[in-house]
Design goal:
By secondary structure, this protein is of the alpha+beta class. It is 35% helix and 36% strand.
Length: 236
Amino acid sequence: MVGYGQRAHFQHCRPATVTTLLGPLTITRPSYLCAACRQGHAPADAQLQICAGSRSAGLDHLLALLGTTQESFAEAATVLKRLTLVHVSPTTVRDATATLGAAVVAQQAQQGRLLQAGTPPPASPTPPPSRLCVLMDGVLAHLHEQGWSEIKVGCCYTTHLRPDGQRPERLAIHAQQLSYVVALAEAETVGWHRWYEAARRSVLKADEVVVLGDGAHWIWKIADELFPQAMQILDW
């Protein structure tokens, strides 16, 4: 084996235990020693995306899903054990959820930079809607490190008419096909997140665009700059 431009020599086969959806699995893989840096290398680790004491990608994905949908990380760990008989700590669930969250934030930031640089928005795989509504709001949450912070929330949805539940003779407007964007970021960054999701929902081809929000200044600044064609509705 060649590493760092130098030849690494086979040393021995070493076991590595990885926690997976099937429980702990021990894999024996060859280890090599680099003559130049005197560091050991296990090429199979990179190929399998593992390291001793790690978790599999499949388990991390499920942990992150449970971490974002259950009421607490402890409850997520309990649900995982019921589903798979695999036991992990609430801290492990939190770490997997935070890792996924960081990846999502990085992806959103990259999308925002591309849009600001003039990259065309993504093409939507669905037909353009007759009306696309873009809702923006902020909610205060007490975070572990930052304290009280405003989390900015956005929603894109279409509407349809159906009989009112209490007065069937009347038609009521109902939201459908809701998709959400949530970010702990400055308003300008959040605006590009909203624009990306709206563009993915064919905002440029919609017959009618509506922006809804309360009286927060940042909402209408985004509406004026990124959705100038929209009808603006102040939510009481």
